[in-house]
Write a structure and sequence with these properties.
Elements: E1 2-3, E2 7-14, E3 24-31, H1 45-49, E4 64-71, E5 77-88, E6 118-127, H2 132-148, H3 154-163, E7 165-166, H4 177-180, E8 181-184, E9 192-195, H5 208-216, H6 218-229, E10 233-238, H7 241-255, E11 263-265, E12 282-287, E13 300-304, E14 309-311, H8 325-337, H9 340-343, H10 358-376, E15 384-388, E16 394-397, H11 399-406, H12 412-419, H13 421-430, E17 434-435, H14 439-454, H15 458-476, H16 508-524, E18 535-536, H17 543-546, H18 558-572, H19 576-589, H20 593-608, E19 613-614, H21 616-631, H22 641-649, E20 653-657, E21 660-663, H23 677-703, H24 711-715, H25 719-729, H26 735-764, H27 772-777, H28 799-802, H29 815-835, H30 840-870, E22 890-899, E23 920-927, E24 930-937, E25 947-952, E26 956-965, E27 972-980, E28 984-990, H31 996-1010, H32 1019-1022, H33 1027-1030, H34 1040-1057, H35 1110-1118, H36 1120-1128, H37 1133-1137, E29 1145-1148, E30 1164-1167, H38 1172-1178, E31 1189-1193, E32 1200-1204, H39 1226-1246, H40 1248-1253, H41 1272-1278, H42 1286-1295, H43 1312-1317, E33 1322-1327, E34 1342-1347, H44 1352-1366, H45 1375-1386, H46 1388-1407, ...
Parallel strand pairs: 10-12, 10-13, 11-12, 19-20, 32-35, 33-34, 33-35
Antiparallel strand pairs: 1-7, 2-3, 2-6, 4-5, 5-6, 8-9, 13-14, 15-16, 17-18, 20-21, 22-23, 22-28, 23-24, 24-25, 26-27, 27-28, 29-30, 31-32, 36-37, 36-42, 37-38, 38-39, 40-41, 41-42
Length: 1864
């Protein structure tokens, strides 16, 4: 039972203290006077009676009633019911201040003078129970007795009130009448029924909640609700005190089952307003007259009840309920409060709908919130950890796990609620496993499933709400029937009575006596025991079972988990390659929670199976998985991943060396979770709970084995269930038993604490403890920063037993880290041990132990750290060695690097898809010849492939340092970007193991090799020699006579040229004045001195060759040029010895000593009539002394093509006199230009029709006036004056760079007849800027064509841009556009267009009979390009392999294109950079080749081969700048003598020749030239294609131009493939565009057939025929066949007439050749796949010759007779048993390896069989067989020897074959 009221107090106005205007209250009387022992009297009641201050009023106010709430020091609430009425102030008092200055009107009629002021007086009841209505009635009764003067003793009533007891709430059954509903009477004829709630844990709200919603509305109340739960400050304003109290009470009722534990003052008195600025959260009510005082509160949520507003300040952020709960709650509230809303839109709304009564609505709203909490906290009991059961339960809540399982870790609201005080109270109160339960417990345990099911169904939800509301209502009003109060009320308006006596003073003694009596009676009465109904609290379904709808739990597909499982099992089965392939997928899967759980479970299984000791690679994989798993975990570890891994990281380990083991935890420390103390607590409590559960489970099993025979359910008992069971038994146990249990539990917790101290030291101490000292000093103090790179190891698990406090290991080294870790662990241990009740002695012991544990662990770690540093890094693949050429040597061993992807997308898996080949990890090698990267892709899906990228060092154009991030998980590394002009880019990042100085050394070596001091340092010279020898050329020279010859040549030339020799760069023509006695530094290559006087004869130009020079001439004649001149009929050597005058041209030896022009060849073609000494003079007019010489003659029109350097400007010749005389006399200039004219005239005269006409002025019927205007070419451009002449228009407009619409397609002139009429006999094509010196002359027969050309600088710039376009350094944003745009900006194609245009123009002119002199720039760049192209287009000979070689040797090498200078091959050329003049020429040839594919004997590959090797420095051919320099080095004539001696080919031509003999790589099968055709290619840019040489690469083998290297690899593969030819092999091949060499993997049909032929011949033991011979025979037989058929196919169509044609002709030819019939078989049979090694992969190819293949029947029908026979192989082969099949249908005898074999090994055509004769055994025949079993089969081609098992069989075979033959 409990007292209804504790104190009755009378409070009045204190007249003595009213100085300041505000009065004060004073307690007039209180009963009982003595405090109750259990409940002291609360202080400050007088403040709360008049919260707005004690004041006097001038009129009587009606009485008021409200309940204030006071909270005492023990946080008990006291309800103060204040009933206030007003009394007149006694007249004795001076009228010091009437309140408002109003004087009351005096009523003279009244006998008593009325007072003018009224003071408040309050009757107060103080109680711990909240029965507001009862208090209102009771105080009202007292007032009524007083005011109406009833004849009842006030003392009696008050005494009764204070002694009235009511039943203790809770657990009372409604049927026990007087228990639940207590009827009380105060002895004034009144009666009240007090209904106590059935369950006192549920708050009582009557109508307050509903009223609150009415005042503020749904959204506002929800804001307040969330603000209260998340601990914000809340202030209610109202002008009604009762409403303030109600609102506060309603808010608390809504928060049930959480209890508000902060400041709670529903009515705050004015004097205490400063409480509002307290920093702690509160719920306070204040009268609205103080509204202005609340304005400056910045962080308070203010609810104005009267205005219905809630004001949230800007700085306050209220976290709202998580969706979808917020929405659902809103909808439910709206259904309860506004049921009409649903039907508001209906046309015929039902009339019945109306809201429930206020009291019912109140309960419905509370039901909504009760459901809300049940949903918010569902499954909370599964996250409780019970860490002690006895003496009283200690329970902790695992917040992180709860949030994680609910999938609400990100949710602000729930997180704050769980961290709040209210929830802590909730856990303490409701966590206990054994207690009485209420509505909430039932709801959260049993109804959650129902709520989930009903979601979204409004009717069902409403029904549920109504059910709950019923229960709540029943709880508050157990007896609706008996709520009959009978209490007197005062008469209306009694407070206005004038003659009101003051409230009487009560008799204390009498009241006290009544109280004492009642107390005495109570003490004699038996104590009322509250019948508590305790039971085990139900846990409800676990969260996992409820959470499915979030989909969070199911976010990962089963396939991912499968991958994780497979990968782990591969790791443990040591299938590392498989594991590596799955690994990226596993890492991606780890983003999902399910996969992480799956990983921990799988690993746990392996630990249980005792597979925790791993090898290094396994260890590495497991660590990487664990780290990946942990990196997505937050510090809270809400999914328990870190918790699950914690036992595993101390289990997995690897042996580093005997006795030293490294555990996994030392590698997974870099995660913030390990430094989070809450994580460790949760883990600790979880473990403790498991141990305590085990403790009691064991007990049970010992004690109660007999009772609990069914052990199934027993096992599944949770810790809470066990605890509940224990708590039920606790009171029944003996004292000793209780003590024993307490002690056991305590020691369990203690041992766990030791265990955790160890665990924490494992994960917090870094592997390298010394390293962290530095980090410590930089603020490692706070918990957060512990996660510095800790990498650690373990001591044996139980340090606890072996610790030794005496040793006091203080080691200065590591004390910083140690101290830090010790402090962290101490903090943890203090917290958990005090919470879980560990004894003080034990706690002290722990504090002593922890430093030792840490110190021992540090010592263990040092050893592990030492050993682990010795480990080689294991995950690196082993370095693959590149294949090197013969004579190529490694300069630097491989540096481990990553090859990064650049802007080309194919390799990185870009536009074509597929796994990325790059980045690849491997090594970069520097050899004397190349830079090579070789490695394997980092993507495990292509891990077996090998990636090779390389280029010759000589082709390096740019090297720059870059910073790259090589792998996602690694730091930025330094790298290099190397660009090569073979269109290759190596973007490499050095591995961290490569020291930066070795990277520097690499760069230095690279530079040294790229730019050698002298051309002798290049690879072509140093190949196969040690560097020392490279400087001693004598060792190289084999042929002494050649050596002396070149010495003499050089000696003479040196003398001639004088000191010019020293400057290696551009040189001016020699100065004749200063020629003799110059000394200059030797190049230490000959020992001759230069000081001797020079031979005069070398200077005077001679026409007769002196005998001493005969040898020189012989050698010169052998040069390419001479062979070609003779072919062209431009003069032979004999004719220059005994010169016949009728030849127009002669071979001049004037330059044989390279005296006139150093960059020209020794023998030159000049007009017959010009003397050598004239030539010497003419040469000075031209740049570099390159005077015009003839290089080609048109055999039909006899027009000649000449080349020269550009002319010097006027007066430049004067410079030649001496440097002091810059201007020259006019006479000299004139004479030179005369001779020049004479020279040109001689050329003109050499053309046949001039010789006929005989006069220099007669131009075949044309007056010379026509030729006069030399500006004609310009004028064509300017005015269309001569547009009627198609040619001129064509030429002019082309040169202007515009192709006019009128011209015909191919650039062919419109009509040749026009040209006949007016054309000059010699056109000089010169640079516009240089032609100022040539004066127009009406009498001359030549015409100048000024054109604008681009210079070398432009070519360089354009080439750079082209390289960047084709091989971009990094991916661009918009690939298609960017590539094409940058290609256009490079202007490369427009340069090619220009060159082709000029060349076609020259071809036109030559073809129409005019000669052309090309005289551009210095005569060695564009001139060479144009001249070579002209010859290529005009003369089919140059389009053969031999002719093209000759063309290059003649025009490029002999005529001195400066290969070394343009290729920047030595240190001297470094500054000038690379200019690809020759490459541009080859690109032009490629364009022509594309347009005329049948005109060239060589293939595109040949052009690419030259492009690659002319800059690779592998051959000597393209080194140096002129023949002179080559002779000087002894290169030019050495080849003959050396060719046999050295197998390293020094000349590219020999190499090509040799290769061409072996394989048809350079041959164009479509070659079928038209006789004498002149090619005229289109040159418009739209007709040009980007050469694929620029864009293609083969990563499988590197560039395919070093043939030995490329061929070296695939052989092994073939071998491997041949072993299992029995198995059918797939014919499907995957060819990667940037990886495979397509021409090799899938060769064209003809190459394939030729290859098969060769392999067959090898197999048959014949010497294979050269492929070329075979091909020629095929063509010949095809031609003859074509002739026989009578079709006049022109030869050009021959080869392109379809593949069947080739195949057929091939078959025809093979049958005639005496190779033997097996050959047919390889081409014609369907199943030839094993006959050749290469086709082992492809399976056989059907050939057109197989006549039966279209309608082939099944095998069985075709086998007329079969059996086994021995067959003698071809010549010198052994006997072999074979399975023979005689086939009548196909009329052939087939044989197989064995009976089961499906692939036919050979066929003997019976049509070719001549006879069958008995045979004789030969060598090697089977021994046991009878002689008569042998027989021979003779065909037209060869004899087959057979042998059967016995004589009968042999006879049968002979008969069968005979019968077949006779049938035929």
């Amino acid at each position: 039972m409990a007292r209804l009221a504790d104190y009755f107090v009378l409070v009045g106005y204190d007249p003595g203290k009213r100085g300041s205007g505000d009065g004060q209250g004073q307690i007039l009387q209180r009963f009982p006077e003595k405090d109750w022992e259990d409940n002291p009297f609360p202080q400050g009641i007088e403040l709360f009676c008049q919260p707005s201050g004690w004041q006097l009023f001038t009129e009587r106010n009606p009485p008021t009633f409200f309940v204030a709430v006071l909270t005492d020091i023990n946080s008990e609430r006291h309800y103060c019911a204040c009933f206030t009425f007003w009394e007149a102030v006694e007249s004795a008092q001076p009228q010091s201040h009437p309140r408002n200055g109003e004087e009351e009107e005096e009523e003279p009629s009244s006998p008593v003078q009325p007072a003018q002021l009224f003071a408040p007086k309050s009757l107060v009841l103080v109680s711990r129970l909240d029965h507001a209505e009862v208090f209102r009635n009771s105080l009202g009764l007292i007032y009524t007795i007083y005011v109406d003067g009833l004849s009842v003793s006030l003392e009696n009533v008050i005494g009764n009130l204070l002694t009235c007891t009511i039943p203790i709430t809770g657990g009372a059954q409604p049927d026990v009448e007087d228990e639940a509903a207590r009827t009380i009477s105060l002895g004034a004829g009144d009666r009240q029924v007090i209904q106590t709630p059935i369950n006192d844990s549920l708050p009582v709200s009557s109508c307050s909640v509903a009223l609150l919603f009415r005042q503020l509305g749904i959204t506002n109340v929800l804001y307040l609700f969330c603000a209260a739960l998340t601990e914000h400050k809340i202030l209610f304003l109202s002008s009604s005190y009762q409403r303030l109290t109600d609102a506060c009470r309603a808010l608390l009722a809504l928060m049930f089952p959480l209890k508000y534990s902060f400041t709670y003052v529903p009515i705050l008195p004015a004097q205490l307003l400063e409480v509002l600025s307290t920093p702690t959260p509160f719920i306070i009510g204040v009268h609205s007259i103080f509204q202005s005082e609340t304005q400056e509160l910045l962080d308070v949520v203010i609810a104005d009840l009267d205005g219905g507003t809630v004001n949230v300040p800007e700085c306050v952020h209220i976290s709202l309920l998580p969706e979808p709960l917020l929405q659902q709650t809103r909808e439910a509230l709206s259904m309860v409060l506004d049921p009409e809303l649903e039907v508001a839109d209906l046309a015929f709304p039902p009339s019945t709908i109306s809201a429930s009564s206020l009291k019912m609505q109140d309960k419905e709203i509370r039901a909504v919130f009760l459901r809300l909490f049940a949903q918010l906290l569902q499954g909370y009991r599964w996250c409780l950890h019970i860490i002690r059961i006895h003496p009283e339960p200690v329970i902790r809540f695992h917040k992180a796990a709860f949030l994680g399982q609910r999938g609400l870790t990100e949710d602000d609201f729930l997180t704050k609620v769980l961290e709040g005080m209210a929830f802590a109270g909730f856990v303490t109160e409701r966590g206990a496993p054994y207690r009485s339960i209420d509505l909430f417990d039932e709801l959260v345990a049993y109804e959650v499933k129902r709520m989930r099911a009903e979601e979204g169904n409004k009717q069902k939800i409403l029904r549920h709400i109504k059910e709950l509301a019923e229960k709540l209502y029943k709880n508050e009003n157990p007896y609706p029937a008996v709520t009959m109060h009978k209490v007197q009320k005062p008469t209306e308006g009694c407070h206005l009575r004038l003659h009101q006596k003051p409230f009487p003073r009560l008799d204390e003694g009498m009241v006290q006596w009544i109280i004492d009596q009642a107390t005495a009676k109570l003490q004699t009465a038996p104590p009322a025991v509250k019948a508590e109904k305790k039971c085990m609290v139900p846990s409800g379904p676990p969260i996992a079972a409820i959470m499915d709808r979030n989909g969070n739990a199911l976010a990962n597909s089963a396939r991912r988990l499968e991958v994780v499982r497979n990968c782990i099992s591969y790791v443990f089965e040591n299938k590392m390659l498989e594991a590596k392939k799955l690994f990226p997928a596993v890492l991606r899967a780890m983003k999902g929670r399910a996969a992480r759980h799956c990983l921990t479970q799988e690993l746990n299984l392996h630990v249980q199976q005792n597979r925790a000791v791993l090898d290094h690679q396994q260890f590495d994989f497991i660590i990487r998985m664990m780290n990946c798993c942990l990196q997505d975990c937050t510090a809270m570890d809400e999914h328990g991943i870190a918790a699950a891994l914690l036992p595993l990281v101390t289990a997995f380990c690897r042996k580093l060396s005997p006795g030293i083991t490294q555990f996994a935890y030392s590698c997974v420390q870099e995660h913030v979770v390990w430094t989070n103390i809450q994580f460790w607590e949760a883990m600790f409590y979880c473990d403790v709970q498991n141990h305590i559960r085990a403790l009691y489970l064991d007990n049970n099993e010992e004690n109660h084995t007999d009772e609990e025979s069914t052990e199934g359910p027993q096992e599944a008992k949770s810790a809470l269930e066990i605890a509940s069971e224990q708590l039920r038994l606790w009171p029944t146990m003996s004292r000793e038993k209780q003590q024993e249990l307490i002690q056991k539990e305590e020691s369990t917790v203690f041992s766990q604490a030791i265990h955790y101290a160890n665990r924490m030291s494992y994960l917090l101490l870094p592997l390298d403890t010394s390293k962290n000292r530095l980090l410590r000093s930089s603020g490692l103090g706070d918990v957060e920063s512990v996660s510095n790179s800790f990498v650690t190891n373990s001591i044996a698990g139980s340090v606890a037993e072996s610790y030794d406090t005496e040793s006091g290991f203080e080691d200065a080294e590591s004390s910083d880290v140690a101290n830090y870790v010790v402090r962290f662990i101490n903090r943890f241990v203090d917290k958990v041990c005090t919470e879980s009740g560990v004894t003080n002695e034990h706690l002290k012991g722990l504090h002593v132990m922890i430093p030792d544990i840490v110190q021992m662990h540090i010592e263990t770690l040092d050893a592990v750290h030492r050993e682990s540093k010795r480990l080689p890094p294991i995950q690196k693949p082993k370095l693959l060695r590149p294949n090197l050429l013969v004579g190529e040597e490694c300069v630097m061993e491989g540096l481990r690097v990553y090859l990064m992807p650049d802007g080309r997308e194919e390799a990185a898996g870009g536009n074509i898809g597929g796994p990325p080949l790059l980045p690849a990890e491997g090594a970069i090698f520097l050899t004397t010849y190349r830079i090579i990267f070789k490695g394997t892709p980092t993507d495990p899906l292509v891990g077996e492939q090998v990636v090779i990228r390389s280029f010759p060092i000589a082709s390096l154009t740019k090297e720059k340092k870059i910073n790259v991030q090589a792998q996602v998980d690694q730091f930025i590394q330094e790298g290099l970007q190397l660009r090569s002009c073979t269109f290759q880019l190596l973007k490499i990042a050095f591995d961290e193991e490569v020291a930066s100085d070795s990277a520097e050394i690499f760069r230095k070596h690279l530079h040294k090799l790229r730019y050698p001091q002298h051309v002798r340092g290049t690879f072509a010279f140093t190949v196969g020699q040690s560097p020392k020898q490279a400087m001693q050329p004598k060792a190289k020279e084999k042929n002494p006579s050649l050596r002396t010859l070149s010495k003499n040549l050089v000696k003479n030339a040196k003398k001639t040229i004088g000191r010019q020799y020293v400057t290696r760069k551009k040189y001016t023509p020699p100065m004749w004045e200063q020629r003799s006695s110059q000394h200059f530094p030797e190049d230490n290559e000959d020992e001759i001195s230069v000081s001797e006087e020079m031979d005069r004869s070398t200077l005077t130009p001679t026409t007769t060759i002196k005998p001493s020079d005969k040898m020189t001439i012989n050698h010169l004649v052998e040069r390419a040029c001479c062979r070609d001149y003779q072919r062209l009929g431009l003069g032979t050597l004999s004719s220059s010895l005994t010169r016949s005058k009728n030849e127009p041209f002669r071979i001049s030896t004037v330059n044989r000593m390279y005296a006139i022009c150093r960059s020209y060849p020794g023998l030159l073609i000049v007009p017959q009539s010009i003397q050598d000494n004239t030539i010497q003079r003419i040469s000075r007019c031209y740049r570099q002394n390159r005077f015009p010489v003839v290089c080609w003659r048109n055999s039909r029109t006899k027009a000649v093509l000449l080349r020269s350097g550009g002319l010097h400007g006027k007066g430049v010749v004067g410079l030649f006199k001496s440097q002091n005389a810059p201007t020259a006399g006019p006479s000299q200039t004139d004479s030179t230009s005369l001779e020049q004219e004479k020279y040109l005239q001689a050329v003109v005269n050499s053309m046949p029709h001039y010789a006929d006409a005989g006069g220099r002025n007669t131009l075949s019927g044309f007056t010379s006036a026509h030729m006069s205007s030399s500006g004609k070419w310009g004028s064509i451009r300017a005015s269309g004056r001569m547009s009627s002449y198609a040619l001129n228009m064509e030429i002019g407009s082309r040169l202007a760079g515009k192709d006019l619409l009128g011209t015909q397609h191919n650039g062919t002139p419109a009509e040749a007849s026009f040209l006949r009429q007016h054309r000059a006999s010699l056109y000089i094509i010169g640079d516009k800027s240089q032609l100022k010196g040539v004066k127009p002359d009406p009498l001359q027969h030549w015409e100048v064509v000024p054109i604008e050309v681009f210079d070398v600088r432009q070519v360089k710039a354009s080439f750079k841009k082209l390289m960047k376009a084709c091989v971009p350094g990094c991916p661009s944003t918009d690939p298609s556009v960017a590539y094409l745009r940058s290609l256009e900006e490079s202007e490369w194609l427009s340069q090619i267009h220009k060159i082709l245009q000029i060349s076609v123009l020259v071809v036109e002119l030559l073809d129409t009979g005019s000669s052309v002199l090309v005289s551009l720039e210095d005569g060695w760049d564009i001139t060479t390009q144009v001249v070579s192209l002209v010859q290529l287009l005009s003369d089919p000979y140059y389009r053969t392999l031999e002719g093209f070689r000759l063309l290059v040797e003649k025009e490029w090498l002999s005529f001195g294109h400066r290969f070394s200078h343009r290729g920047a091959q030595t240190l001297a050329g470094q500054s000038s950079g690379f200019a690809p003049i020759f490459l541009q020429f080859l690109d032009c040839v490629h364009q022509i080749h594309l347009q005329f594919p049948m005109e060239f004997e060589f293939s595109q590959y040949y052009l690419k081969f030259l492009s690659y090797h002319y800059i690779s420095n592998r051959f000597r051919t393209f080194l140096l700048d002129s023949d002179y320099e080559r002779i000087e080095l002894g290169l030019l004539y050495e080849e003959k003598g050396e060719r046999k001696s050295q197998q390293v080919y020094k000349s590219i031509w020999d190499y090509i020749e040799r290769l061409n003999k072996k394989a048809p790589v350079f041959f164009n099968y479509m070659y079928a030239p038209e006789d004498g055709e002149v090619l005229r290619p289109y040159s418009n840019i739209s007709n040009l294609k980007v050469w694929d040489y620029y864009t293609e690469e083969t990563l499988s083998e590197g560039p395919s131009y070093d043939w030995e290297l490329a061929q070296g690899q695939p052989e092994h593969v073939e071998e491997a493939d041949r072993q299992d030819t029995g198995a059918p092999q797939t014919k499907r091949k995957i060819i990667w565009p940037c990886y495979d060499n397509r021409s090799r993997v899938e060769p064209d049909a003809i190459s394939k057939l030729l290859e098969e032929l060769q392999n067959l011949e090898m197999e048959l033991g014949q010497v294979p025929e050269r492929w070329k011979d075979t091909w020629d025979k095929v063509k010949a037989s095809q031609r003859s066949e074509a002739r026989q058929e009578g079709s006049r196919t022109p030869s050009s169509l021959l080869m392109s007439s379809g593949l069947s044609h080739h195949r057929r002709s091939l078959g025809v030819y093979l049958q005639e050749s005496g190779v033997g019939s097996t050959l047919n078989l390889s081409l014609d049979s369907d199943t030839s796949s094993t006959s050749t090694p290469s086709s082992g992969k492809q399976g056989g190819r059907r050939s057109t010759s197989t006549l039966y293949s279209q309608f082939q029947m099944s095998e069985s029908e075709n086998r007329s007779y079969e059996g086994s026979l021995y067959k003698k192989g071809a010549f010198m082969k052994p006997w072999k048993p074979r399975w023979f099949v005689l086939d009548k249908t196909k009329h052939q005898l087939r044989y197989y390896d064995s009976r089961m074999d499906t692939e036919c090994k050979g066929v003997i055509d019976l049509a070719e069989v001549e006879s069958i004769t008995p045979g004789t055994p030969t060598m090697g025949a089977p021994k046991t067989v009878d002689e008569k079993a042998f027989f021979d089969l003779k065909t037209t081609k060869r004899v087959y020897n057979f042998c059967a098992q016995d004589v009968q069989l042999a006879q049968q075979w002979i008969d069968r074959i005979q019968s077949c033959l006779s049938d035929a």
